Amino acid sequence: MASSSTNSWLAFDIGGANIKAADGQGWSHSEPFAMWQEWKRLPDAIRHIQSLRPATHYAVTMTGEIADCFPERSDGVRHIVQSCSLATGTDNVFFYSVTGVLIDAKEAIHQPLDVAASNWHALARLAGSLAPLGNSWLVDIGSTTTDIVPLSCGKPAPKGLTDWDRLAHGELVYTGIERTPLPTLVHTLPHRGAMRPLAREWFATTQDAWLLLGYLEEDSKSVNTADRKPATRDAARVRIARTMLLEPNAFTLADAIEAAEAIATSQILLIKDAMQLIIQHQQKEDCIVLSGQGELIARKVLSHMNWEPRTISLKHAYGDEISRVAPAHAVALIARQIL
């Protein structure tokens, strides 16, 4: 697979909850896509994004193959690969492998575990380009997961390559700033001097806590929430009241903020524990590249660790829009042989 000045590239990061795209030259796009519900519509979604930024060649990374609409990862990979080929109508579609190369559709289907859950590796290469010397780490906190990737001289140096191995080594932590159900973080929450148990149901998520604390912006048009109601502070208050089985009209904003602070602390400590297992020898020259929508959480984690390493923000380096789709941007740069 070669790149030339006559080729134009568009890269996709196809996840379980969002599809992101970038051309490696500053254009980017992100939209919600509930793979577990809408998997049959994937070719149409890709075709729509392609129409916004036509290209001659396409590069793809993915995490959506783990969605529970697919019996196995290989089925998910096959569906994503075939959907991309169908939507673009070309053989010029390549898939990013955790071996660090782009492979064609046929190879991707025959080597599904190489391309499954591969976006973190491309992102780590982008992070490594900002910290090319010594030992450093990427800490990427997105809507659903947290990636903690060791870097050596700017290159990914993880203990695990598959998502199950990374989970076992603590390099993948299944918690994020938006989609984590509250009962996976806390079993009780404070309410007017008492600790109340939570219903173990998907009534509210971490998005509600960070909305209430003011770290996520309200979006009255977004209904990508547990109850499909708006992503506003007041709606978040109602969702947290529901997870405590309290009547919303008896659960004030102050009550909700108190609960949100406890939720945030629990999530911070969860990520802190994972980071401490991986980052055991902190040296003054150590560097951490921060990435993802939950960068603010990572900074709070470092504060709890009483550690002040040199930090590089992907958001500051590339801007809000590109950092939001950073794995897609990274794959586009790899395809264009820049990264």
Helix/strand layout:
Layout: E1 9-14, E2 18-22, E3 28-32, H1 35-38, H2 42-52, E4 57-62, H3 73-88, E5 93-96, E6 102-104, H4 105-110, H5 112-115, H6 119-130, E7 135-141, E8 146-152, E9 155-156, H7 163-169, E10 172-173, E11 188-191, E12 194-197, H8 206-212, H9 233-243, H10 253-278, E13 287-291, H11 295-304, E14 310-313, H12 314-318, H13 320-324, H14 326-335
Helix pairs in contact: 2-3, 6-14, 8-9, 8-10, 9-10, 10-11
How does this model look, in words?
The chain has helices at residues 35-38, 42-52, 73-88, 105-110, 112-115, 119-130, 163-169, 206-212, 233-243, 253-278, 295-304, 314-318, 320-324, 326-335; strands spanning 9-14, 18-22, 28-32, 57-62, 93-96, 102-104, 135-141, 146-152, 155-156, 172-173, 188-191, 194-197, 287-291, 310-313. The protein has 14 helices and 14 strands. Helix content is 40%, strand content 19%. The chain has 2 domains: 9-117 and 321-335, 2-Layer Sandwich (Nucleotidyltransferase, domain 5), CATH 3.30.420.40; 131-308, 2-Layer Sandwich (Nucleotidyltransferase, domain 5), CATH 3.30.420. A 6-stranded mixed beta sheet has the order 3-2-1-4-5-6, sandwiched between helices. Strands 7, 8, 9, 10, 13 and 14 form a 6-stranded mixed beta sheet that branches. The protein has 339 residues and is of the alpha/beta class. The model has no long low-confidence stretch (mean pLDDT 95). It starts with 8 loop residues before the first strand and ends with a helix. Helix 8 packs across helix 9, helix 8 packs across helix 10 and helix 10 (253-278) crosses helix 11 (295-304).
